[in-house]
UniProtKB/TrEMBL annotation:
Residues 4-40 form the LRRNT domain. Signal peptide: none annotated. It comes from the Eukaryota. Keywords: Leucine-rich repeat, Membrane, Repeat, Signal, Transmembrane, Transmembrane helix. GO terms for cellular component: membrane. Belongs to the LRRC3 family. InterPro entries: Leu-rich_rpt (IPR001611), Leu-rich_rpt_typical-subtyp (IPR003591), LRR_dom_sf (IPR032675), LRR_TM_domain-containing (IPR050541), LRRNT (IPR000372). This is Leucine-rich repeat-containing protein 3. The chain crosses the membrane at residues 177-198. It is found in: Membrane.
């Protein structure tokens, strides 16, 4: 049994299914009491900051979802579970997203708009975009706000990737350098300890030798004994 239309939204009918209009309603989160037969959901121009796990799990008919012009920073890995097969259009443009987990858009067949977000260009984002069907009209507006390689900041992500840049290779190189630095640090510590240990033993040996030298010899002890006897 479906829910009635949320108080903060306006609902209408399209081909026997429900269109829910919740744009510009000062919402801070996605309504949980949406009609079960919702086919289109408009949540643009609100103050939503997060898409939690299974936010739309009770909307099996959902085809169109507009979350543009919010303040979304976080998209949970299971955000679109339950609608990944039905969804045909997803608008996440003009938000505050820097990155998303690879699992968040898994199995989505929707045309997606991700433009005008402060994306951080690195390996995970590259892997996410490789699997998506981006909206061709806004694809050049998906830009690197920051990047693991600073020279690509401000450039369209697709343009950078099409030029042959592979952020995952850079990630692996960075990891390799970090491992090398760590191993070199441990090696330096081991060498320093060995040097300290050798020098410490040499000092002990020198002191022991000086102690032995300071002891009277056996011939001197015999002479002293003969002197006392006479």
């Amino acid at each position: 049994m479906g829910f009635a239309c949320p108080k903060s939204c306006h609902c209408s009918e399209r081909n026997g299914l429900t269109v829910v209009q919740c744009s510009s309603r000062n919402l801070e989160e996605i309504p949980s009491d949406l009609p079960h037969d919702t086919v289109s959901l408009f949540l643009s121009s609100n103050h939503i900051t997060k898409i939690p796990n299974q936010a739309f799990k009770n909307l099996p008919w959902l085809q169109e979802l507009d979350l543009s012009r919010n303040a979304i920073e976080t998209v949970d890995a299971g955000a679109f579970q339950g609608v990944s097969e039905s969804l045909r259009a997803l608008d996440l443009s003009h938000n505050h997203m820097q990155s998303v987990p690879k699992e968040a858009f898994a199995r989505l067949h929707a045309k997606i708009s991700l433009s005008n977000n402060p994306w951080h260009c690195e390996c995970t984002l590259q892997e996410v975009l490789r699997e998506l069907r981006l909206d061709p009209e806004t694809v050049n507006e998906v830009s690197c706000h920051t990047s693991v390689q600073e020279e690509y900041a401000g450039k369209p992500v697709i343009q950078v990737l099409d030029s042959g840049i592979n952020f995952c290779n850079f990630h692996h190189k960075t990891t390799d350098v970090a491992m090398f630095v760590t191993m070199f640090g441990w090696f330096t510590m081991v060498i320093a300890y060995v040097i300290y240990y050798v020098r410490h033993n040499q000092e002990d040996a020198r002191r022991h030798l000086e102690y032995l030298k300071s002891l009277p010899s056996s011939s001197q002890i015999s002479k002293d004994f003969d002197t006392i006897s006479t």
